[in-house]
Amino acid sequence: METIKMSNMALYEISNDYLKALDLFTDPEADIPLEAALDTLEGIEGQLQEKAVNVAKFMKNLDATAKAIKEAEQQMARRRKAIENRARWIKDYLKANMEAAGITKIESPWFSLAIQKNPPSVEVLDEQTLPEDYKTEVVAVKIDKAAIKEALKDGEDVPGAVLKQGTRLAIR
Predict the structure, then answer these.
(1) Please, which residues bridge with residue 105 across strands?
(2) Which portions of this protein are annotated as coiled-coil regions (predicted)?
(3) Per-residue pLDDT tens for 41-100?
(4) Is position 144 within any domain?
(5) If you ran DSSP here, which 8-state letter would residue 1 be given?
(6) How many distinct structural domains can be found in the chain?
(7) Is residue 156 part of a domain?
(8) Is residue 154 part of a domain?
């Protein structure tokens, strides 16, 4: 009889051992008492369940860590945006005061400040009066997955699409 290790194994190893044991115990040529087979399967199943629970706990811990990191990222992004807005406001404030005083350049040992003209930019005043030569048509295609799903559920053939049924692990 093949021996099955029952030590601290990985989940996939326990799963493989369970399948091996099932194959061995359902082999008509194997002379294994039913009670021994059931005890072995029960032991492996218990080990599998315990390992699965521990893997799920680890996964929950990773999820919590990822959530905390995401919240920290959002908080840092808000802070960054506030600092950028404050810097932009201060720059505009400095520019406005230099212009009001008629000062166009300030030199210092750290940097120089100068009021400069921006490159020309276009401001569209009335889009309707623009000649067609200056307009570009933009076509955006959006796939309506909900409509495709309904059509496939109703038995319609939709070339280029299939209805697929996946599985997921629910942990409550």
Answers:
(1) 114
(2) 55-86
(3) 788 888 888 888 888 998 999 999 999 999 999 999 999 999 999 999 999 999 999 999
(4) no
(5) -
(6) 1
(7) no
(8) no
